[in-house]
Amino acid sequence: MAGFTAREIPKLTSSELLKFKLSYTEEDSGCMVWKKSVRGGYGQFKIKGERFPAHRIAKHLELGKLDLSLVVDHVCQNKLCVNPKHLRQISVGDNVLCGTAPTANNAAKLFCNKGHELDPYVKGGARRCGVCEKAKERRRRLLSTMRVIPKIHVVVLGDPLPLSVKTAKK
């Protein structure tokens, strides 16, 4: 959840707790799917006029208190699920890698686009293919040693033509 700042969840009154429990339905998958207010794909619930993510409340009700340095991850990958058995507290970095975003997909790759095994270490913030990187560096060095001769253009009747084309017509 981009821009989310974890806050302590206040104690729910008995009427708020009842309202919370009536806001989801249990499905065959085991997910308890939130059916009320949704924001950014996540269920929302108001406590004393403040809006809180429903899945964080569900985990808070199970544990008694959340570690505010961690996020609540949906193991089932269903953002509307409030089943505490489908929720766990993990670091933001681990949560990103458990998802389906490009960062997670790239971290899971074992081979580059050409089929070479990716190096396990990170260089410059991204994993690289050693074989492709060496080939790229060889090409760069080779090109830096080559001398490029620019084409000479001659203007004839206002049209620029390469000198080789003009001499070929004579």
Commentary on this structure:
With 170 residues, the chain is of the alpha+beta class. The chain folds into two domains: 14-98, Homing Intron 3 (I-Ppo) Encoded Endonuclease, Chain A, CATH 3.90.75.20; 109-147, no CATH class. The chain is 32% helix and 22% strand. The chain has helices at residues 14-21, 54-63, 92-98, 102-108, 130-145, 163-169, and strands spanning 24-26, 32-34, 38-39, 42-47, 50-53, 71-74, 87-90, 122-123, 126-127, 153-156, 159-162. A hairpin with a 2-residue loop joins strand 8 (122-123) and strand 9 (126-127). The N and C termini lie far apart (71 Å). Residues 165-170 have low confidence and may be disordered.
Question: What labels describe this entry?
Answer:
single chain, 170 residues, alpha+beta, three-stranded antiparallel sheet, 6 helices, 11 strands, elongated, disordered C terminus
